C-alpha cells in the first residue's frame, strides 16, 4: 500500500498541484458552461411567429410558470370586482400596512361561471388573506393540473430547455464535482501522511469548487427560441409595460387581445410591475410588500427568473440560485430546473 502515497501525484509540490487542480477546475467550468449554452440554444432555430390572438394566461405561463398564471388569474378576478382588498380603519389599518389582504366581494359568490383556475382562487379568498399565501396552499397543485395545455404547448414548440439535456448537464456537473473533490481529498490525505500542513489554499479551492460548479451548471428555463418569442411579444406590446401609461395611448392595430383586457394582457406579458401607479396599484403593492420581506430575486422582472414547468412557488423562489451564473449571466435555473 506504500505506493498509494508514494507516487508522482502524491509527492507533487504544492504550487504545481495547485496549478493542476486549478486547471482542472477551469476546464470543468468551461465544459459545463458550453453544455449549458447548448441546452439553452435548443434544437429549433426558426423563430415562433406572434399569433393574431394572444392568450395572456399562456404568455404568463411561459414567462414564469404556474406562479405567474395564479397572479394573472388574481388580477382577472380583481378587475371583475369579484375579489377586493380589505378596507380596515383605525388601529386595524395601521397594523395591516405590512400585509394588505384581499377577500371575495360577495360571500355568496359561488363562482359557478368561472373557469377552474379562477374558481380555485376565488374560493381561497373566502377568508381575507395575502395573495402570496396562495403559493403555500394547495392552490398550486390545482392550478398545475389546469395548466397542462400550456405545458404541452411549451413542449411542442420547444420553448423550454430540453429536459433530457438538463438531466445530462446535472449528471456531468456531479461527475466533475466528485472528480475534483476526490482529487483534492486525496492530496489532503497525502499531505497528512507526509506531515505537511500548508493545505489552506487547496481547502479553499475545494470549497470554491463546491460553490462554482453547481452555479455554472445552471441555465435559463427558456430555450433561445422561447426567450426570443417572449422578447418579440414584449417588444410588440411595449406600451403595456405600464398600464397607467398605456391607457392614454391608442390600441395596437396589428394584434388583437381577444377577450382579454388591457391590464390582463399587461400582466401576462410583463408581470405585476405593469400595474404600478394604475388603479390596480394596491395589488402591485401587495406583491411588492411580500417580495420585500422574502429573499430571492425580484417578483417584478419582465422575464421572471425562470421557474420550471412545475414551478417552484415564486418567480424565483425556492431552490434556485439567483446570482450571476458563471460566464452565462442571468438567473441560471430559477425555479430549480
Features:
mainly alpha, 337 residues, 2 strands
Question: What does this 3D model show about the protein?
Answer:
With 337 residues, the chain is mostly helical. It has 2 domains: 13-42 and 162-216; 56-160 and 220-292. The protein has 12 helices and 2 strands, in the order H-H-E-H-E-H-H-H-H-H-H-H-H-H. The protein has helices at residues 14-41, 56-79, 90-95, 116-124, 139-146, 148-156, 163-193, 200-216, 224-236, 243-246, 262-270, 281-292, and strands at 83-85, 102-104. A two-stranded antiparallel sheet has the order 1-2. The longest helix has 31 residues, at 163-193. The radius of gyration is 25 Å and the shape is elongated. Mean pLDDT is 78; it is low at 89-96, 250-255 and 293-337.
Task: Give the topology, please.
Blueprint: H1 14-41, H2 56-79, E1 83-85, H3 90-95, E2 102-104, H4 116-124, H5 139-146, H6 148-156, H7 163-193, H8 200-216, H9 224-236, H10 243-246, H11 262-270, H12 281-292
Antiparallel strand pairs: 1-2
Helix pairs in contact: 1-7, 1-8, 2-4, 2-11, 4-5, 7-8
Q: Tell me the strand order in the biggest sheet.
A: 1-2
The whole-number mean of residue pLDDT values reads: 78
**So how many helices?**
12
- Count of structural domains: 2
**Main beta sheet:** 2 strands, antiparallel
Series of secondary-structure elements, N-terminal to C-terminal: HHEHEHHHHHHHHH
Write down the overall geometry.
elongated
By DSSP, the count of extended strands is: 2
Q: What amount of the residues lies in strands?
A: under 5%
The low-confidence runs, each spanning 5 or more residues with pLDDT under 50, are 89-96, 250-255, 293-337
Radius of gyration, taken over Cα atoms and rounded to an integer in Å: 25 Å
Helix content: 40-55%
Structural class by secondary-structure content = mainly alpha
